[in-house]
Amino acid sequence: MWVTADGHIRQELRADGRYDEARGTRRSAYTGRYTVTGSYLFYVDDTGFTATGDIRDGVLFHEHLVLYKETQA
What we know:
Blueprint: E1 2-4, E2 9-13, E3 18-23, E4 26-37, E5 40-45, E6 50-56, E7 59-62, E8 65-69
Antiparallel strand pairs: 1-2, 1-8, 2-3, 3-4, 4-5, 5-6, 6-7, 7-8
C-alpha cells in the first residue's frame, strides 16, 4: 500500500498486476492494471486512461502525486 503524506490518497498495487486507488472516503476511485519495468510503472485505468510513475529512493512518484510505502504498526 502506498499513501500520500496526508493520507488522502491510498494506492494498492496488487501482486496480480491490478491497482486500486482510494481518494478520501471514496474507495476504488480508480482501478486498473499496471506493469513494472525496473523502477518504472505504467498504469492503464479500467476506463482506458494511462499514467506513469517511478520509484526513487523508496518513494513512488505517480504523475503529480508523491506516495510513501505504508508501514504496518
